[in-house]
Design goal:
- By secondary structure, this protein is an all-alpha fold.
- It has 21 helices and no strands.
- It has helices at about 5-10, 50-60, 70-75, 95-105, 115-120, 125-155, 160-195, 200-235, 240-255, 255-270, 275-300, 310-330, 350-380, 380-420, 420-450, 450-455, 460-475, 480-495, 500-510, 510-520, 525-555.
- Helix 7 runs parallel beside helix 10 (about 255-270) and helix 10 (about 255-270) runs antiparallel to helix 11.
- The termini are far apart.
């Protein structure tokens, strides 16, 4: 109201304000476009404290929600509030159910699949990069949160439960890597179709993504179920861990179709420029996992106490709910789901497979190489292994930034090449790399200047800190090259040319093991492992940067990424 002060407005109750941007509704109706922006706190319902993660969730998932938004607050705060330890828990299952309905209602989208095309192919490059990159980086953070939430609650069940989930988590990560590779391939094809402005091509690319996701998940489920028992026998776990881990892994594998489709839906939103929607969708799935984990693990009310199987069930249900909601939202953008697309895969399915398969193989082999590198590290004792784990944790912030910018580069390069502008596609990739190096370089400077303080945040043991300091000093100096590696791999994915880049990645990453072993044989200590990691990272970043610079002329002549596709736009 004109002339009213802020304090007067704050004291009024529920003043509905019509706004031009769709906002989350407080009612349980699934589709409400406008909601009250101001709401007075009830004396018996104090506002919840806003944590950093919760504020990030609200910024992207519910930007217009009032400051006492309990659905988002409870879903995020329950992780820090075990049963009986705070206001974050749910009093009844009905309260949890109502909050989940509100969370699903808060994740919505309105627009058209080509809405952000002009921004990506002709608007400000920096604005387009930040529009796509920031939500993608937070998505990578939330994705890592699923295993953290499981470990948090299973830690209250017992060490055997944690060991079972951790042992099964390795195979789960392999399966997820394949799904993410398939999603990246499908997303690059869809980005090119969106860039071309051809709606028929968008329809075909959508069908291709669904087909690849379904077929890929069925193959993973078949092979995975066959290998579950041999996997635990090979690892030599005790019977209790084997029993619980097998149950966990079987449930997760049966839910892989939901995960593959959920990954494809998220990639489709990013490919169309709706990176914020992909983040909101993942935030809802993560919140569902936070809600269901304690309910199914410990058995609340009529729900049975499932233990480790409950954690797996909560994860699969979160994927399924996120997939169902995402499928619905894609329809609002004009991307019609085709459930039976896998029966007759379109030609674009092979293009998506050609892009995604090398990335999936690279991710799977990376995890195996990491296991071998860990075995080399174990020869120097437990402090060295602990230092390796802490070093990876210190790198995680830089990696999330790089992963987000890499996902943005996939969309930027794909859409611009689909529009026929190879020069702008190249410029966006290099600009994304430059904007990535700025925060990565800043974090690296902080870590390298105070390595002992950084390692001491996690542990105070002198031997671990000493080994961790050398890790930070050696590997920290290679972080800028890691940025080049991750961002340019995303750019190559957007250009639908990943075979040679993935081969380079695999060869140089695999070289870490013999290089470390050779240096150890010549009298080096654990620094041999750190040096092998840093040296190969520098070489990978340099080689991929040179390869991308060399590849650009071929893209400009139309001989590269979009050749043979029916929506290939003419070159400039």
């Amino acid at each position: 109201m004109p002339g009213a002060s802020r304090s007067e407005l704050a004291g009024r109750r529920a003043v509905p304000v019509s706004v031009s941007v769709p906002v989350p509704a407080r009612s349980l109706r699934p589709r409400v476009r406008f909601a009250p922006v101001l709401r007075k706190h009830s004396p018996r319902e104090p506002p919840l404290a806003i944590s950093g993660l919760e504020s990030s969730f609200r910024r992207y998932a519910a930007p217009k929600i009032a400051k006492d938004g309990t659905p988002a607050g409870r879903a995020v705060r329950v992780l820090a509030s075990p049963p009986g330890c705070g206001s974050g828990r749910w009093g009844t299952i009905e309260e949890a159910r109502c909050d989940l309905v509100r969370l699903l209602s808060s994740c919505s989208v309105h627009g058209d699949v080509l809405r952000y095309r002009e921004l990506v192919v002709s608007g400000s490059i920096d604005r387009a990069i930040l529009h796509l990159g920031a939500p993608a980086a937070l998505s990578a953070l939330l994705q890592a949160g699923f295993l953290i939430v499981d470990a948090f609650w299973l830690g209250r069940v017992g060490p055997a439960a944690v060991a079972a989930a951790s042992t099964a988590g390795f195979a789960m990560w392999l399966a997820q890597t394949i799904g993410e590779g398939a999603a990246a391939g499908s997303g690059s094809v869809l980005a090119a179709a969106v860039g071309s402005g051809d709606r028929a091509a968008v329809e075909r690319a959508t069908a291709a993504g669904q087909s690849l996701g379904l077929w890929g998940s069925l193959i993973v489920v078949g092979f995975g179920l066959w290998l579950v028992r041999p996997l635990f026998e090979f690892m030599g776990t005790d019977p209790a861990v084997t029993h619980s881990g097998t149950a966990y892994l079987v449930i997760v594998l049966l839910g892989m179709p939901s995960y593959f489709l959920f990954s494809w839906i998220s990639a489709a939103f990013r490919a169309a420029g709706y990176a914020g929607t992909a983040l909101r969708l993942l935030a809802v799935a993560a919140a569902v996992n936070v809600v269901l984990d304690p309910l199914l693990i410990f058995g609340v009310g009529p729900l049975p106490r499932l233990g480790v199987a409950g954690a797996a069930s909560a994860t699969v249900l979160a994927w399924t709910i996120g997939c169902a909601r995402g499928w619905q939202l894609l329809g609002r953008l004009g991307i019609r789901p085709r459930p039976l697309a896998f029966l007759r895969p379109p030609a674009e399915s092979w293009a998506a497979l050609r892009v995604g398969l090398p990335l999936a193989v690279e991710g799977a082999l990376f995890s195996l190489i990491y296991v071998l590198l860990t075995r080399v590290t174990t020869t120097f004792g437990t402090p060295a292994v602990a230092a390796l784990g802490i070093g990876h944790k210190l790198e995680v912030l830089n990696y999330f930034v790089c992963a987000g910018m890499g996902a943005a580069a996939t969309t930027l390069v794909g859409q611009n090449l689909g529009a026929g502008d190879a020069v702008r596609a190249s410029r966006t990739a290099w600009r994304a790399l430059f904007l990535t190096i700025l925060p990565v370089g800043l974090v690296t400077m902080v870590l390298v200047s105070r390595p002992a303080a950084a390692v001491s945040v996690f542990i105070s043991d002198h031997e671990v800190v000493s080994a961790g300091v050398t890790y930070v000093l050696l590997v920290g100096l290679s972080q800028v090259f890691m940025a080049a590696e991750v961002v340019l791999v995303g750019a190559f994915a957007g250009s639908q040319w990943t075979t040679i880049p993935a081969a380079i990645e695999i060869a140089l990453t695999a070289a870490r093991v013999p290089m470390a072993a050779w240096l150890v044989g010549r009298g080096w200590g654990v620094e041999a492992v750190w040096l092998a990691i840093a040296a190969t990272c520098v070489i990978k970043g340099t080689v991929l940067a040179l390869l991308f610079a060399f590849r650009r002329p071929r893209l400009a002549t139309g001989r590269g990424i979009l050749g043979g596709l029916p929506y290939n736009a003419p070159g400039p």
